[in-house]
Amino acid sequence: MKKNMLTIMKKEFARFFGDRRMVFTTILMPGLLIYLIYSFMGAGMAREFMTDDKYVARAYVQDMPEELALLFDPISARWTEVSGPETEDAKAQIRDKEADVLIVFPESFTDRVEEYDVHSGETAPNVEIYYNSTESESVKLRSLLVDILDGYESSMANRFDVNAGEEGYDLATEKDVAGQIFAMLLPVLLMSFMFSGCVAVAPEAIAGEKERGTIATLLVTPMKRSALALGKVISLSCIALLAGLSSFLGTMSALPQMLGGQQNGVNTGVYGISDYLMLLGLILTTVLVMVSAISVISAFAKSIKEASTVVSPLMILVMVISLAPMFGGDGERNPGCFLIPVYNSVLCIHGIFSFSCTAAQVGVTIVMNLLCAGVLSWVLTRLFNSEKVMFSK
Amino acid sequence: MCPYGFSVFRILQISGFGMCALRGNGMDEILRVCGLKKTFRLSAKQQKLEKSGDRKKVALNDLSFTAYRGEVFGLLGPNGAGKTTTLRILATLIRPDEGDAVIDGASVITEPGEVRQRIGFLTSELKLEEFFTPNYLFDFFADLHGVGAKEKADRRKELFERFGIDQFAEVKVGNLSTGMKQKVSLAVSLVHDPDIIIFDEPTNGLDVLTAKVVTDFLLDLKTQGKTIIVSTHIFSLIERICDRVGIILDGHMAVCDSLEAVTAGKSLEDRFFEIYEERVGGIA
Lengths: 393, 284
Prior knowledge:
The structure holds two protein chains of two kinds. Chain A is mostly helical. Chain A folds into two domains: 57-172, 3-Layer(aba) Sandwich (D-Maltodextrin-Binding Protein, domain 2); 175-390, no CATH class. Helix content of chain A is 66%, strand content 5%. In chain A, strands 2-1-3-4 form a four-stranded mixed sheet, sandwiched between helices. In chain A, helix 7 (174-212) packs antiparallel against helix 9 and helix 10 (273-300) runs antiparallel to helix 11 (304-323). The model of chain A has no long low-confidence stretch (mean pLDDT 86). By secondary structure, chain B is α/β, with parallel strands linked by helices. Chain B contains eleven helices and ten strands. Chain B has helices spanning 6-14, 44-50, 83-90, 112-118, 134-144, 149-163, 178-189, 208-223, 235-241, 259-263, 268-279, and strands at residues 29-41, 56-68, 72-76, 98-103, 106-107, 119-122, 196-200, 227-232, 244-249, 252-258. The radius of gyration of chain B is 19 Å and the shape is globular. Residues 1-24 of chain B have low confidence and may be disordered.
């Protein structure tokens, strides 16, 4: 049986790696695309939040109080006083993206602010800032002005401050910060990459063989059906793993650009070898579960197209499960959750990245995944024996 | 009639033996098919096509016959008579609802792996991966059959030269002509040099030249002492290569005897239509 299993594995590898187009679209392209797209997104986001030092905003103001004029001085803007009908012209210019903001202060703003009693029930004096949300410089300037005005408002009734000094008040370590970010992002990314890798190869190798009529040629050989099932599941898992790994490497390479680099404290070096080894074990066994589940579903399908369609609900389920740690939940505290395939992997991956996972939890998960993959491979063996499933038209 | 009586088989089956008794005739029996029954469930669409309200279609109904070592046994019948179903049961691709077939001592029900080891099966339904070359596929199937390296090399040389595959050995199957694909399938199905060879419509869809190559090869296999079970609806093929013939009509074995006994001095075609009219009625 072992010899036939190896023969099937060799054939699956030859089929996959012999097809350059398949290798490119399944392994190289996803990682490359993810790297390029995420890097592009990161650069785009950085550009969005970066201010252009040379830019001089065009701002209009009505009834500007002298005290505030001093606060607005550091802003790189050319201020123009407007009044009466000019305010409508200023608004039109902002609408046409020719100017950035218009601030309208109530008349005698500082006096009215001083006289205002918060307990009176009257409406507080209102400063109006007109801006254009589709123009980034306009949005940035509006945000800056709101911050200055909020600061001015706070200074008027300053009784106490919170964290006003230069002291580093956030005591979280670099490790904790990195852990929090990775634990939030990576379970869902890893699970989706693994599943995509499996979907790229398993339906082709099972439903595809049925569709092309080549499965019957294999079934008339003396090889045991279990050798065929295991040979397919193991080889497809290896290929899916490579596909998933490519996407993972693409993501990890682009992550610093996406998250703004290491200046934000995101550093992959906070994880040790044992963390990576546990992660490897989890990924390997999770891919086995996914490939065997997709293979079982594909065995019922008459074509690759049908198999891909039928697998979609499973993909949605895996994605929903992967998102669980992002929305909290006490799964990691419930030992029973580590007996549920896929969910246990998500919990462990989240736990590893947030430094809260134990070796025992990973051990139970790996054993459960292997058991689940074993049961599904047995089901696949039974399906290879079923004439109704294999030869139904 | 089959070489063993229906009543004898029924008695043994009812009494729990599940196997037919054989009428001794001194020949070395290699295939014994006893009381095969197979029904298929029809989908609503298939029911419409068949113009039948019945959800089940009986493909084989108590089919029995025997083949002897070194002979070519032909299964003759119209489309839908049950020839392919019979051969698929013999190849262990499907299981009968009732009855059994014993091939060289191995039952298709209890020892399907043994049966597959002993037979070579070829049908147009069995396709080869078009991505691979004849060389690769020959090695692959030889490995699955446990053929040793030297034997594999010798068989490849012999079969590839015989069918002219050697010039195309490194061309992907998808790029070969229909005839060459059929020759590659033939070579691959015989990679393990089986004693019993089962062919379903071996010359179907082939041009006259390739059909002749295949027919001549079947005759060669016969001279090598191989047992060949072949299903076809081509009378001339049966007349040319078969020692014995079984005519299947509506899942029953209508006639099963030597070619001479079946034809009784007439042409096989004339005898077939006589038997058909006798058993089924006029031809629509």
